[in-house]
Each structure stands twice: as structure tokens, then as C-alpha cells.
Amino acid sequence: MTTTPRPPDALDRTDPADPADPADPAGPNDPADAAPAPPEHRDLGSAWRRLLPPRLRGRSLWIGVLDARTRSLAQGVVVEIGSLPPSPTPGDAAQLERFLAGHSATVVGGRHHVAALLSRPGPAQLGEADGAWAAVVYDSCAAVDVPCRVVHLAGDDTVVPVPRSLVVEHLDRLAS
Q: Where is this region: Disordered (predicted)?
């Protein structure tokens, strides 16, 4: 996995923040036939779209730190973790936890939230690997007590919110 810092201006916002509770009502699984996402999810989704390159290559995890008060990117950096394997391993989860823990005291410190985006080529429909990666993000944030905004998934066509409730439901369906 490789990390690349990104400029902050793509995520600076004045729109209302999306709720920090990842158990918010499920966003669309298939954007073509799903109900519109709540405005707070669309705002963060729009910010992610502005940040992404015009053509997605490979699977990446983007981590940003949002100021809960100003709703803008804190500390001026978004990190892209590129070249992700198709499915996460326990080692990937441990590495993400270490990364988040290292930033929790200095960057997050109670008034910031983690914003995460999974990107990959293809349609933005939640697949098994996407659900597994989103679960790793939510679980890693919870493990180090870092508040996490709703994870988003970017494909070639759009960016959609992937609330924790949708991830749990999706993974339960796959397990049965």
C-alpha cells in the first residue's frame, strides 16, 4: 500500500456536516434505483468527487480529517492509501488502526472526525470486497475511539454513502 497526501481545498466546505453516527439510514446501494441520499451525505460525496482524479485506477482508501465545528478539512491533508488488495487482511486492519491511533491524539483530539472514501474502477455498487473494506474502516475507527463520518464508495459513475448499517446488512446477506 502506498500513501499520497492530497491538498485540502477539495474538501473545504461550508455545508452542514453529515452526522457522525455511522448507523444513519442506509444510503443507496445501487444509485440507479435507490432513493436520493440525505443532503449531508451528498455534501461529503460532492467533496470527495472534487478530490478524485478523472479516471480511477486500482483500489484506494482515502482518509481525511474533518473539523467538526467548521466542517472543513483539518490539518490540510487527505491521504490516499493506494494499491489496496481486493479484500482486506487482518494485517491491513491492524495497519489502519495504527495509522488512526497515531493521528488520534494530535489530529483528531475530540473535535475532528475521520472521513473515508473507498475508490475503485467500475460502478459504485457495494460489492463483497467494498463491504469488507468499509467494515475495516468502521471497526478500526471504533477500535481506537476515533469518530468516523459515513464511509463513501466511489466508482467510475458516482460517489455513494455506505453507512455502517448497510455494511452490516450486506455482509450478513453474504454470510447466509
A: 1-44
| Cell numbers standing for residue 14 | 461550508
DSSP-derived secondary structure for 51-113: HS-SS--S-EEEEEEEETTT-SEEEEEEEEEES--SS--HHHHHHHHHHHHHHIIIIITTTEE
Q: How far apart are CA 171 and CA 16, in angstroms?
A: 30
Phi, psi of 159 (to 5 degrees): -120, 130
- Name all domains of the chain by residue range, CATH numbers in brackets: 2-175 (3.40.140.10)
66-122 confidence digits (pLDDT tens): 777 766 655 456 889 999 999 999 999 999 999 998 877 666 666 788 899 999 999
Query: Is-contact 165 24, C-beta < 8 A?
Result: yes
Report the relative pairing of strands 151-154 and 112-119 from DSSP bridges: parallel
| pTM given for the model | 0.75
Question: Within a 10 A sphere around the Cβ of 157, how many other Cβ atoms?
Answer: 12
What spatial distance separates the first Cα and last Cα of the chain, rounded to whole Å? 31
d(CA 111, CA 74): 10
Starting at the edge strand that comes first in sequence, how are the strands of the sheet with 112-119 ordered?
Answer: 2-6, 73-82, 60-67, 112-119, 151-154, 159-162
